[in-house]
Amino acid sequence: MTKRYLAWVHKIVPNACSLYHFEGFDKSYLLHEGIELANKFPDDVYFDMHPDRPHDTLLVDSLFNTDKERVISESLKKFLVAKKSPNLEFLPVKIMDHKGKFIEDKYFIMNVLDHQNCLDYDASEAEISLINDKTIDSVEQIVLLDEKVNDNFDIFRICDFPSATLVSESLAKELEDNGFTGIEFLPLDEFD
CA 161 to CA 85: how far, in whole Å? Predict the structure, then answer.
């Protein structure tokens, strides 16, 4: 592994909208498996804004949601498309406001394809799910097996642990320098 990676997490921004229900796609679990979905994704998929936070309506570039998806703005999508990452697809999703109306701003789920089997389970202190033994519920930190990381990707997810999205340090710096909001990058040893 020549590149160094950071974990993409949601940055808490005062009054930023957070998303609650994910509707219109019955197979949402596929978004956590690294499978291409562009040809199967319906047109009427949406998230609604969290009902317990009626005053939180600020739209940032990466919206927090209870489904742990990367829901990103059109401007962030355009930036990432220009990077020509071969393992990303962007699925359009609508956002319903607190009044039951869809907002005009365009948002997309960033679906990260081709997950990598590169987690050091022991060093990461990975806790395997009791429900599905092919899923990791939590880690104390993320430790990668260097020889199993494909450096061709600036963004990737880990097999069996899709809740973590990893970004190369160079891309993270570009995202920060361009002022994209709602995103924070953590060193892998601080991710838990």
Answer: 21
The burial class, CB within 10 Å (0-12 / 13-18 / 19+), for 79 is: middle
User: ∠ CA 181-62-163 to the nearest 5 degrees?
Assistant: 130
**Secondary structure of the chain in HEC code, one letter for each residue:** CCCCEEEEEECCCCCECEEEEEECCCCHHHHHCCCCCCCCCCCCCEEEECCCCCCCCECCCEEEECCCCCEEEHHHHHHHHHCCCCCEEEEEEEEECCCCCECCCCEEEEEECCCECCECHHHHCCEECCCCCCCEEECCCCCECHHHCCCCCCEEEECCEEEEEEEEHHHHHHHHHCCCCCEEEEEHHHCC
Report the DSSP beta bridge partners of residue 156.
Answer: 166
> How much is the pLDDT for 79?
97
The pLDDT value given to residue 162 = 86
* pLDDT 10s digits, 85-111: 889 999 999 999 999 999 999 999 999
pTM given for the model: 0.93
